């Protein structure tokens, strides 16, 4: 998770990059950018950047890790450019639909979930459902949440890399989590015994 | 239900606590609220659950969501041609 591509002794042939890595890179980019053209562009830009950096690439990390690191930076760049737009950076207020008017009580109080995260993390059916819930998030919430969880970046590093302020970052993450949990509770965790 | 502050506030802080260390006072108020409020207790567990299930998937080599779409042949060809040109 560093900014510098990790060096490695023997780089494989760039002619094989597309066949070997492009699908994984594309999935990664599509999860975050959503539009297929944007994801294709990001993959292409990353591979071209990798080609130019190839001379500097000699070390231990796997080639895939190195290429994915470049791709992640391309995506972070896009988030940063969007963050410069004041209209994007100003968060709309009162977006939360979880609350019962002025009382600030839960409209749908969260329930206790049963399930083992490590089992679910490999459950294909569960991820099909997560995909739907994730797709319903506003784009920036989704991108930031992916950086925080899939990419395991610290909140502080996300702020540094994207230029999003800490306060806005916390709000975006809170909203993403709140929407995801409401969506998953309804679609996955609701016990079947409930009519 | 709400001992010190509202559920809205408690949920916000429960989420923030995943991302940075809360000041002592807020931390204590949050713990106090959560001790007495089953809904916010469930909320906190749920968001920790969600964060960790995403991290676990990434650690299994899948930092992405499943998709039926792959990179299509035309895009593949375009990228390959571009790479060859730049070599």
Write up this protein.
The complex is a heterodimer of chains A (195) and B (87). With 195 residues, chain A is mostly helical. Chain A has helices spanning 17-33, 36-53, 63-83, 86-89, 117-120, 124-135, 139-148, 155-162, 166-189. In chain A, α1 (17-33) runs parallel beside α3, α2 (36-53) crosses α3 (63-83) and α7 crosses α9. Chain A is globular. The mean pLDDT of chain A is 85. The N and C termini of chain B lie far apart (66 Å). Chain B has helices at residues 7-16, 24-36, 38-59, 73-86. Helix content of chain B is 68%, strand content 0%. The radius of gyration of chain B is 22 Å and the shape is elongated. Chain B has one domain (1-65). The interface between A and B is large, with 65 and 50 residues.
Average the pLDDT over all residues of chain B and give the rounded result: 91
Rg of chain A, alpha carbons = 19 Å
Order of helices and strands of chain A: HHHHHHHHH
How much of the sequence lies in strands of chain A comes to under 5%
> Which spans of chain A of ≥5 residues are poorly predicted at pLDDT below 50?
none
Number of helices of chain A: 9
Strand content of chain B: under 5%
- Portion of residues within helices of chain B: 55-70%
Estimate percent helicity of chain A: 55-70%
DSSP E strands of chain A, number: 0
Distance between the termini of chain A: 46 Å
Helix and strand pattern of chain B = HHHH
In DSSP terms (H or I, runs of 4 or more residues), the helix count of chain B works out at: 4
Please identify the structural class of chain B as seen in this structure.
mainly alpha
Query: How many separate structural domains of chain B?
Result: 1
């Amino acid at each position: 998770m560093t900014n510098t591509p990790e060096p490695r002794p023997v780089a494989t042939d760039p002619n094989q990059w597309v066949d070997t890595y492009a699908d994984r890179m594309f999935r990664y980019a599509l999860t975050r950018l959503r539009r297929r053209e944007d994801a294709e562009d990001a993959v292409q830009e990353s591979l071209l950047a990798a080609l130019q950096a190839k001379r500097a690439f000699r070390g231990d990390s796997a080639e895939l890790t190195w290429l994915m690191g470049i791709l992640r930076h391309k995506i972070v760049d896009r988030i940063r450019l969007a963050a410069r737009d004041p209209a994007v950076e100003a968060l709309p207020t009162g977006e939360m639909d979880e609350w019962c008017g002025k009382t600030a009580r839960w409209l749908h109080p969260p329930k206790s979930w049963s399930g083992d995260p490590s089992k679910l993390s490999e459950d294909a059916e569960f991820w099909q459902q997560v995909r739907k819930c994730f797709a319903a998030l506003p784009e920036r919430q989704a991108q930031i949440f992916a950086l925080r969880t899939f990419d395991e970046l610290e909140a502080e590093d996300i702020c540094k890399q994207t230029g999003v302020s800490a306060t806005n970052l916390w709000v975006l993450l809170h909203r993403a989590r709140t929407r995801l949990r409401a969506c998953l509770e309804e679609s996955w965790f609701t016990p079947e015994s409930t009519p | 239900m709400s001992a010190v502050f509202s559920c809205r506030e408690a949920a916000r802080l429960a989420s923030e606590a995943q991302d940075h260390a809360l000041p002592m006072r807020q931390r204590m108020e949050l713990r106090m609220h959560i001790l007495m409020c089953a809904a916010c207790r469930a909320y906190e567990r749920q968001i920790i659950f969600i964060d960790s299930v995403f991290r676990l998937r990434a650690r299994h080599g899948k930092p992405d969501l499943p998709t039926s779409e792959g990179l299509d042949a035309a895009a593949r060809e375009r990228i390959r041609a571009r790479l060859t040109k730049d070599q």
